[in-house]
Design goal:
138 residues, 4-stranded antiparallel beta sheet, 57% helix, elongated
Length: 138
């Protein structure tokens, strides 16, 4: 089992992870995890834990994890948006075919405001993208 363990363990936190070095080479053959750093996925900051100095292999492993984690989170974000489109379609079908008057009364204002807000942002951002495209053609 010890041979299958990675050298580092990343305990996921809200904005990143706590990084541990995994040690199995000891007399009791126990798994020991020594915290070596904190990583922030939002700003890429890597903070050594305590007075510790991180080695080059530590930094390589942490940067590699950080790059993969940021890519995974970005992929999850876009997947969530695709799901939101599906939910909007399912909500439309529900409102048209299944919803009672009382159910519609309970959600209509909130849905209309959220959809209006979303539409406003999407139209503004599309106009900004189109303006940038036109400026590039001048």
């Amino acid at each position: 089992m010890a041979g299958d363990l990675p050298d580092y363990y990343f305990r996921i936190r809200e904005n990143g992870a706590a990084v541990f070095r995994v040690e199995t080479e000891n007399r009791q053959r126990r798994i020991e995890m020594d915290q070596i750093a904190l990583v922030n996925t939002r700003n890429g900051e890597i903070k050594p834990h305590g007075e510790r100095a991180l080695s080059e292999p530590d930094m390589v492993a942490i940067r590699d994890w950080l790059e993969k984690r940021v890519a995974l989170l970005a992929a999850r974000d876009i997947d969530d948006i695709h799901r939101a489109v599906d939910y909007l379609n399912l909500t439309t079908q529900w409102a048209q075919s299944k919803a009672s008057d009382a159910q519609l009364e309970a959600v209509t204002d909130a849905l209309l405001l959220a959809m209006h807000d979303l539409r406003t942002v999407l139209v503004r951002r599309k106009a900004e993208r189109l303006s940038k495209g036109d400026a590039g053609e001048d």
